[in-house]
Design brief:
The chain is built from eleven helices and ten strands. 48% of the residues lie in helices and 14% in strands. β4 and β5 form a beta hairpin. The chain has a five-stranded antiparallel beta sheet with strand order 1-2-3-5-4, with helices on both faces. By secondary structure, it is of the alpha+beta class. The protein has two domains: 78 residues, Phosphorylase Kinase, domain 1 (2-Layer Sandwich); 225 residues, Alpha-Beta Complex (Aminoglycoside 3'-phosphotransferase, Chain: A, domain 2).
Length: 340
């Protein structure tokens, strides 16, 4: 349990400021800590800890610093007196950020989605070619070949454990699983044929960061523009990871809109053009049933009604069919590709 008074005293010593007030916003022991601090000068700050290992926290903070220097809208971390971007208290690293007031971005209309996609495209583009200080450990995503295999096994395991029910929500999901397994296996085959190995080694297209948890609550409206916050999942990976996340948030309880999906990709590529190899990886990743698998693994269907589960499954099926036909033609195994 964090001793807050001692923590705030540590902040004053580390940053050479005098605090006027402090407000605890969130504290989950050994998980997250967020407080608003106001200095006697009137400057406001956010004090955060994710209770990550120091090397991981350093990567996050240095990524935020470098991105801010390249013009990405975010709350930059403040350097302590010793020049570091974080300090440690009771064994956990803490970062002090400039306070960024604002409201969460809406995600109700296609234009709302496109604005956030544009922001992500600028962020991804700005992250290419960043050089970290010596000693900073860089973090990437799990190898997709391992990830795809794990996710497919996860779906199969759910079917073996929960799929005996032939009615209700679980019955609907069990009936849909053969389709999503088939498309997942199809995406896996395409991945094996792709340039992913060279990409993972850094020799096929520029490496870029992804936010890792891109949804509208992690985007603030500040001064009339959008700002990114909460980079705790930042890592090197292909842009599809952020596109999948934000589109899945937009698509909740909304029928699949092919035009909006197409515009999302078009707008992204206008701002951050991708090499042919990386673009193909994005298409493969958009085909893979990541969202479906996560729904099973996180048991999100438990909070849904039977009608909502049916609606959701139909949405995911339509989105998958769109990706399959647009990117791979009607049959990827034949080697014919659809329109990109």
């Amino acid at each position: 349990m964090v001793t807050t008074e001692k923590l705030y005293e540590r902040v004053e010593a580390a940053y050479d400021i005098r605090l006027q007030s402090h407000e605890l916003i969130k504290h989950k022991p050994d998980s997250s800590f967020v407080a608003k601090l106001v200095a006697e000068s009137g400057d406001a700050y956010a004090l955060k800890s994710l209770f990550e290992p120091p090397e991981r926290q350093r990567f996050i903070a240095e990524s935020e610093r470098l991105l801010a220097e390249r013009g990405v809208g975010l709350a930059p971390p403040v350097r302590a007196k010793d020049g570091r971007l974080f300090f440690e208290h009771e064994g956990a690293p803490y970062v002090l950020y400039e306070w960024l007031p604002g409201e969460g971005a809406p995600l109700n209309k296609p234009d709302d989605l496109l604005r956030i996609v544009e922001l992500s495209a600028r962020f991804h583009r700005a992250s290419a070619g960043m050089e970290y200080p010596s000693g900073v450990q860089e973090y990437g995503h799990l190898d997709w070949r391992e990830e795809y295999a794990q996710r497919l096994r996860s779906i199969e395991d759910w079917l073996a454990k929960e799929g005996r029910t032939k009615s209700g929500k679980k019955g609907l999901i069990a009936a849909a699983i053969p389709y999503f397994l088939k498309t997942g296996e199809m995406a896996f085959r395409e991945l094996k044929k792709s340039a992913y190995g060279a990409y993972a080694e850094g020799s096929a297209g520029a490496r870029t960061l992804v936010h890792g948890d891109l949804h509208n609550k992690n985007v603030l409206i500040h001064g009339g523009s959008l700002k990114l916050i909460d980079f705790e999942d930042v890592r090197y990976d292909a842009p599809s990871k952020d596109l999948i996340r934000i589109h899945s948030m937009y698509a909740k309880r909304r029928a699949f809109e092919a035009r909006t999906f197409r515009l999302m990709l078009q707008r992204y590529l206008e701002i951050n053009p991708l090499s042919q190899d990386v673009r193909r990886l994005v298409e493969i990743d958009l085909l893979f049933p990541h969202v479906f698998e996560r729904t099973l693994r996180k048991k999100k269907y438990k909070k849904m009604t039977e009608e909502e589960v049916a609606f959701y499954l139909e949405h995911e099926r339509r989105r998958t069919e769109y990706a399959k036909k647009r990117f791979f033609g009607s049959d990827a195994s034949s080697g014919k590709e659809g329109k990109a």
